[in-house]
């Protein structure tokens, strides 16, 4: 049936800062509108990338705290609507105080959890849920530009991240 559509014109001088939803809020919304079995997520790769950047070697950066960094690539799928989206994120946790094995393990887990959460949120940022008054839900994949992570196979993605 016909519906009413309102179009908003772009306003000058108004800049909106987009803040991504947390991974827990994304999961809560997906469970509410799609159901617990209406969507799924899986980790494509989770890699330790600590010490692979040259930031600590830059001039002027001294006494930088040691940290653990993990890179995560994740895929969110909505099979009933044929939508699949990938997200990539970096999680970092500083080592606090002594650098014993327990502290390293705790920081590693913190960095992994942060990377997975950010990657899940990044995946959901490209999924649009349209909820109609009747309760029906439509799911669309949206992206400003073609995301290279969405076009690569899983094996190509793992190779790309390792480099």
The arrangement of helices and strands along the chain is HEEEHEEHH
Widest sheet, order of strands? 1-2-3
Q: What class do helices, strands and sheet pairing give?
A: alpha+beta
Name the poorly predicted regions. Answer: 56-63
Terminal CA distance = 52 Å
Question: What oligomeric state is this?
Answer: single chain
Domain DM1: 21-128
GO cellular component, one term: nucleolus
Protein name: RDM1 protein
Organism: Semnornis frantzii
Helix and strand layout, with pairings?
Elements: H1 23-34, E1 40-48, E2 67-78, E3 83-94, H2 101-124, E4 127-131, E5 137-141, H3 148-151, H4 154-162
Antiparallel strand pairs: 1-2, 2-3, 4-5
Protein name: RDM1 protein
GO cellular component, one term: nucleolus
Organism: Semnornis frantzii
Structure characterization notes:
- By secondary structure, the protein is of the alpha+beta class.
- It has one domain (23-50, 66-160): Enolase-like, domain 1.
- 30% of the residues lie in helices and 26% in strands.
- It is built from four helices and five strands, in the order αβββαββαα.
- A three-stranded antiparallel β-sheet has the order 1-2-3. Strands 4-5 form a two-stranded antiparallel ribbon.
- A hairpin with a 5-residue loop joins strand 4 (127-131) and strand 5 (137-141).
- The chain is elongated.
- Residues 21-128 form the DM1 domain.
- Pfam families: DSRM_RDM1.
- One of its GO terms (cellular component) is nucleolus.
- It comes from Semnornis frantzii.
């Amino acid at each position: 049936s016909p519906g009413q559509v309102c179009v908003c014109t772009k306003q000058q001088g108004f800049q909106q800062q987009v803040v991504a939803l947390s991974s827990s809020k994304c999961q809560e919304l997906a469970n509410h509108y799609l159901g617990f079995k209406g969507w799924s997520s899986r980790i494509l790769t989770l890699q330790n990338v600590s010490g692979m950047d040259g930031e600590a070697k830059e001039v002027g950066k001294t006494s930088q705290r040691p940290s653990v960094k993990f890179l995560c690539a994740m895929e969110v799928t909505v099979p009933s609507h044929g939508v699949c989206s990938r997200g990539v994120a970096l999680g970092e946790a500083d080592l606090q105080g002594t650098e014993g094995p327990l502290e390293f393990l705790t920081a590693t887990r913190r960095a992994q959890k942060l990377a997975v959460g950010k990657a899940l949120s990044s995946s959901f940022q490209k999924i649009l849920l349209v909820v109609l008054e009747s309760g029906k839900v439509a799911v669309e994949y949206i992206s400003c530009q073609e995301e290279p992570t969405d076009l690569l196979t899983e094996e190509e993605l793992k190779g790309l991240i390792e480099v």
